[in-house]
């Protein structure tokens, strides 16, 4: 059964919240590109794998406030909390714009701001 892009993103994110980064990565294209606006760009699934291993010391907690799908794009707005290297939980607001290709997540443009 083919999932629509919105359902695909929801299913993929469920793997992240369970700490299953490899399960999440099965929903990404091999040449996926993640751009964190104002910070860095990750090229390819291996770079994303390495980022997740460092950034997701403990599985992040998501609150998705809006999920908007149009064509090959899904935009997620919400809040995320993650632990940093010191074990302190940091809260962020985010807007992720995902581009899908043939049912997989091919590109992410992420706007992430630490909330006070």
Walk me through this protein's architecture.
With 116 residues, the chain is an alpha+beta fold. The protein has 3 helices and 6 strands; from the N terminus they run ααββαββββ. It has one domain: Nuclear Transport Factor 2, Chain: A. Helix content is 25%, strand content 50%. Strand 4 and strand 5 form a beta hairpin. The model has no long low-confidence stretch (mean pLDDT 94). Residues 13-107 form the SnoaL-like domain. It comes from Arcticibacter tournemirensis.
SSE map:
Layout lengths: L4 H13 L3 H5 L2 E9 L3 E4 L1 H11 L5 E10 L2 E11 L5 E13 L2 E11 L2
Parallel strand pairs: 1-6
Antiparallel strand pairs: 1-2, 3-4, 4-5, 5-6
Organism: Arcticibacter tournemirensis
Protein name: Nuclear transport factor 2 family protein
β-strand number? 6
- Helix coverage percent of residues? 25-40%
Work out the helix count.
3
Query: What is CATH's topology name?
Result: Nuclear Transport Factor 2, Chain: A
Instruction: Give me the strand/helix succession.
Output: HHEEHEEEE
- Based on helices, strands and strand pairing, what is the structural class? alpha+beta
Let me know the average pLDDT.
Answer: 94
Based on CA inertia axes, which overall geometry fits?
globular
Model regions low in confidence, pLDDT < 50 over at least 5 residues: none
Main-sheet strand order equals 2-1-6-5-4-3
Our estimate of the beta-strand percent is over 45%
Domain SnoaL-like: 13-107
Protein name: Nuclear transport factor 2 family protein
InterPro entries: NTF2-like_dom_sf (IPR032710), SnoaL-like (IPR037401)
């Amino acid at each position: 059964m083919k999932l629509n892009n919105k359902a695909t993103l929801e299913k993929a994110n469920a793997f992240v919240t369970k700490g299953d980064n490899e399960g999440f990565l099965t929903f990404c294209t091999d040449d996926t590109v993640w751009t964190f606006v104002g910070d860095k760009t990750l090229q390819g699934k291996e770079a994303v794998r390495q980022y997740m291993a460092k950034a997701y010391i403990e599985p992040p907690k998501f609150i998705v406030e809006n999920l908007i799908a149009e064509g090959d794009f899904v935009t997620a707005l919400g809040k995320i909390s993650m632990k940093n290297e010191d074990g302190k939980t940091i809260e962020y607001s985010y807007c992720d714009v995902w581009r899908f290709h043939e049912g997989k997540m091919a590109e992410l443009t992420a706007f992430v701001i630490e909330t006070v």
